[in-house]
Design a protein that fits this description.
FbpB family small basic protein; 2 helices; 57% helix; SenN/SenS
Length: 53
């Protein structure tokens, strides 16, 4: 009896992506979490160099 062939990490990632793409509820959940994270981001203006007088 042969052992089943193991999948490479890339194959597992691709399988997970395909499964996720077919799951509308999971995609909606991810989109909602990304929107929440984006709304909590704080944008900071880069500091300007002060001139020596």
């Amino acid at each position: 009896m042969r052992k089943p062939q193991r999948l490479s990490f890339d194959d597992l990632m691709e399988a997970n992506k395909n499964e996720l793409k077919s799951n509308k509820q999971a995609l909606d959940s991810i989109d909602r979490k990304l929107d929440e994270k984006k709304s909590k981001e704080v944008y900071v203006r880069p500091a300007t160099k002060k001139r020596a007088n």
